[in-house]
């Protein structure tokens, strides 16, 4: 037992070192990207940028072959190289995309030389930059100002640092993309940590991590200047810390969870959705504490949960309380009005949230048309924007259009397949005997409850959001992008349970069928990621 404990400790220590080196590499590349945006490279023609970035990828490939040929490509090295490649893709995308390209609610800035108060996330950041305080106006009177301010405050500090270091104002604002770039890269590291906490290794780890690393949504959002990417990072951290707490049941874990939820809520309020499955886990644990009938133990955990509440409530609710006291405003989202072409309330609930008809999918041209007349179904819009954001290209070459059509069909098929896979593997780790050698039954049950209820509640809250705010923009995939982590978990656990060594699998036809299906899912995901990357590269999007 002692030797096994030492082995686990050594693995954790090695993993921590690998994580530290990975974060250092990510930080260095993000800073290099910020510097590159301030050089003549940023103003060179698009094809020149693509050529330089291609050379970097050739060098990367050379390093990969060197590690392979020298026998140094173990699990840690493979993970590092995957995250490094994902970071290079994101850095390349930011270098090839300007401040106003493929943004959501970005608004604009006019600079320190004016006293204009501009709308949008950029305007919000500029307000803090100009006046060195949070906006005094009612946040619901100017678009995007209703958002909690953490992302915008951090962006202001980064903007100020750029100015102090001598960057021109235009460059400083252009470099606002560097922070979401950094957040997106950190999401890859946190996803890797989540998979490791679930004891997913080798092929399951690689395919699960690859899904997060190469999915186009996470790459495009790396160049976004709004608060979506920081929100997703905090939600990833909530999932990670919750899974760790389920294993350890310690006060330190509770404090980390409280900070992640609190700071997530003052980045974007929908981070609080993950507090619901967490509350269920807390309740399950507290009931088990009561059943022990030990007064000291019960009082200790009452104290711990009070500490959790004392930390999370003041941080997470601060923005809501401020707006209630100062402006009498409850949480909500300003809407464009019924005259907007995006308005969907005129369509039935089934048309918006029911199973889409075949014609709704528009497989021939799988892009989001914005107008509700063209498409009002939430799930169709979600799939469209998950791959191609809100792009609606008019001059796409035929070969790329065919690739888009194939990729979209596969994305729909395997999106549904991975949702079913997630349910299957989470139930598997509770009810299957073969799963007991990987994880104890109580931990497996709590993991299943937390992950499964979190995934379902996320989709329910998404549907509720679309009903409350009936516009096509409410159906954008970015509102449920955290589901990519759940898919990564499904892929990892699926490989862990269904494609483990033959002598460890359950016998019979059903086990062979599960293994076959898992192989099909793996290859489907690989094709989707490969095709989507090729589409964006030749489409001139990065």
Provide the fold topology.
Layout (H helix, E strand, L loop, with lengths): L1 H36 L8 H24 L5 H22 L23 H12 L18 H15 L4 H6 L3 H20 L4 H13 L1 H6 L6 H21 L2 H15 L9 H17 L3 H22 L1 H10 L21 H5 L4 H4 L16 H11 L9 H34 L9 H28 L14 H16 L10 H31 L3
Describe this structure in words.
The protein has 21 helices and no strands. By secondary structure, the chain is mainly α. Helix 11 (251-265) packs parallel to helix 13 (295-316) and helix 12 runs antiparallel to helix 19 (441-468). The N and C termini lie far apart (51 Å).
| Major sheet | none
Helix content: 55-70%
Total of DSSP H or I helical runs spanning 4+ residues? 21
- The secondary-structure class comes to mainly alpha
What number is the mean pLDDT? 89
Measure the end-to-end span. Answer: 51 Å
Short description:
This protein has 542 residues and is mainly alpha-helical. It has helices at 2-37, 46-69, 75-96, 120-131, 150-164, 169-174, 178-197, 202-214, 216-221, 228-248, 251-265, 275-291, 295-316, 318-327, 349-353, 358-361, 378-388, 398-431, 441-468, 483-498, 509-539.
List keywords for this structure.
mainly alpha; 542 residues
């Amino acid at each position: 037992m002692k030797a096994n404990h030492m082995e686990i400790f050594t693995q954790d220590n090695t993993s921590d070192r690998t994580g530290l080196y990975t974060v250092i590499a990510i930080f260095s590349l993000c800073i290099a990207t910020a510097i590159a945006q301030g050089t003549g490279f940023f103003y060179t023609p698009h094809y020149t940028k693509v050529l330089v970035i291609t050379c970097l990828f050739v060098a990367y490939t050379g390093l990969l072959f060197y590690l392979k040929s020298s026998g140094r490509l173990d699990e840690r090295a493979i993970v590092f190289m995957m995250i490094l490649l994902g970071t290079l893709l994101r850095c390349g995308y930011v270098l090839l995309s300007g401040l106003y390209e493929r943004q959501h609610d970005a608004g604009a800035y006019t600079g320190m030389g004016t006293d204009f108060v501009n709308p949008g996330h950029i305007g919000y950041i500029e307000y803090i930059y100009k006046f060195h305080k949070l906006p005094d106006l009612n946040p619901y009177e100017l678009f995007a100002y209703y958002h909690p301010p953490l992302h915008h405050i951090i962006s202001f500090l980064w903007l100020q640092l750029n100015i102090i270091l001598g960057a021109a104002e235009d460059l400083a604002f252009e470099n606002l993309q560097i922070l979401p770039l950094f957040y997106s890269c950190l999401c890859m590291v946190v996803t890797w940590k989540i998979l490791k906490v679930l004891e997913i290794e080798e092929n399951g780890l690689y395919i699960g991590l690859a899904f997060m690393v190469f999915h186009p949504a996470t790459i495009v959002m790396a160049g976004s200047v709004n608060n979506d990417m920081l929100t997703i990072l905090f939600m990833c951290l909530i999932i990670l810390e919750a899974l760790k707490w389920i294993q350890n049941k310690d006060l330190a874990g509770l404090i980390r969870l409280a900070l992640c939820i609190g700071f997530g809520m003052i980045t974007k309020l929908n981070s609080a959705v993950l507090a619901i499955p967490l509350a269920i886990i807390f309740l399950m644990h507290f009931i088990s504490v009561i059943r022990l009938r030990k007064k000291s133990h019960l009082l200790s955990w009452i104290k711990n949960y009070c500490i959790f509440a004392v930390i999370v409530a003041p941080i997470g609710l601060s923005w809501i309380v401020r707006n209630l006291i100062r402006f009498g405003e409850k949480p909500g989202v300003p809407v464009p009005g019924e005259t907007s072409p995006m308005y969907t309330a005129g369509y039935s609930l089934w048309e918006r949230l029911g199973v889409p008809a075949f014609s709704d999918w528009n497989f021939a041209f799988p892009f989001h048309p914005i107008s509700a007349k063209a498409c009002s179904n939430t799930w169709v819009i979600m799939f469209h924007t998950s791959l191609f954001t809100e792009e609606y290209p008019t001059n796409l070459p035929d070969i790329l259009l065919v690739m888009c059509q194939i990729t979209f069909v596969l994305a729909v098929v395997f999106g549904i397949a991975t949702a079913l896979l997630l349910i299957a593997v989470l139930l598997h780790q509770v009810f299957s005997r073969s799963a007991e050698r990987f994880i104890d039954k109580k931990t497996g049950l709590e993991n299943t409850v937390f992950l499964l209820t979190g995934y379902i509640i996320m989709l329910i809250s998404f549907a509720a959001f679309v009903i409350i705010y009936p516009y096509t923009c409410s159906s954008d995939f970015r509102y449920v992008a955290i589901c990519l982590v759940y898919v990564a978990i499904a892929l990892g656990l699926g490989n862990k349970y269904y494609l483990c060594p033959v002598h460890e699998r359950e016998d019979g036809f059903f086990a062979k069928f599960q293994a076959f299906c898992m192989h099909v899912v793996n290859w489907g995901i690989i094709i989707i990621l490969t095709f989507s990357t090729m589409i964006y590269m030749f489409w001139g999007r990065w």
